[in-house]
Each structure stands twice: as C-alpha cells, then as structure tokens.
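step=predict obj=Glutathione S-transferase family protein n=208
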Amino acid sequence: MEKIVLYTHPQSRGRNVVWMLEECGAEYECVVLNFGEDLKTPEYLAINPMGKLPALRYGDTVITEASAIIAFLADAFPQANLAPALSDANRGAYYRWLFYTASSAEAALMEVAFQFPIQPAMRKTLGYGSMEQVIATIDGQLQQQPYLTGAHFQACDLLLAGLLMFASRSKALTPTAAMQDYLARIMARPAFQAMNQISEAQLAQLSA
C-alpha cells in the first residue's frame, strides 16, 4: 500500500477526508496546517498551487479537491464497499449523487450561506436552479430509501452529509425530517465519531 499523507485543518473540508480515511480503515499521516501563511509557502504551493486545503499525497500522486480525494479513496479501498464496482450498473446512480453534491448542492448552499446576489433571470442558466429545487431533490430521494443509492452508505453519502452538516451549522439550511433521520444514521457511524475525536485533537494541537 502506498504511503498516504493528508494536508488538512480541522475546520476545513479536510474533516471529511479524515472521515473517509477512517471509513476505509486506511493508515495515514496528517500534516495539520494553519490557514494563512502555512498555505502560501513554496513547499505547500508545490503540492496545491491554489493554496487550499485539503490535499492528499498517495505515494507519488497528489490529489486536491475534497470530492476528488473521497472518490479516489473509495476506489483505492474497494474492501470498504464505499462505491459500486466499475462493472455495476449502480455506479451510474453513485456518480449522479457524487457530482450532484459537489456541483449543484454545494453551489446552492454557498449561495444562501454567503448571500450571493442572483438575479431571477439568471436562474435558468444555473445548474442547480435554486436552493428550493436542491432541497426538494435531496429530500425526495431520502424519503424513498435510507441512503442516496439504496440501503447502503457510500462515499456519495459521506460527501452529502458533510455538506448538509456544514449548511445546518451555518444556518444556510433547515434540514427536513428525512434529512434529519439521514444525518442521525450517519453520525452514529464509528468512523464519523473517530473523525470528531481526531478533529478535536488537531484543534488542541493548533492552539497549544
């Protein structure tokens, strides 16, 4: 197995990558960086020229973008059963929700959280349409089944749940009853609880 190094901050999307690594049962090292100057050093910019977190080094391969890292890890650890096999037709539904979360759902929630001014005439050109459409789409799916693609938790659920939790904390979203039940199931997972403990330890490390 390749050596895995995660560059992260406990209040960044790196939390979700830690959670994913725990779901995978992976052995990994965390390099915890402060926002600001730590992300502008030549050493870190050589890893991620955007100066953003998280970034993952998998052997000699560097992956940025939290959704890309999570999707990569799902395939790198097939024994964790966090993604359908390439030959499985359910891979289509998995991709649908993975990309819907990373594009439409996140864009809609960020619009509300940061109060971006969107003119009504612009709505038809936006992939997500509106926050109301996004909520209705997700809620409708979660009313039908326990997880996005059926009975089993997968990487697309991790990505969506992390986004919904952020949106709820930031008051950009009031979760529906189906979303609340969904999040309760997910927050009971041992890997999610392990991530919270790791995040608390990382925050203590940064403030020491």
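step=describe
The radius of gyration is 17 Å.
step=end
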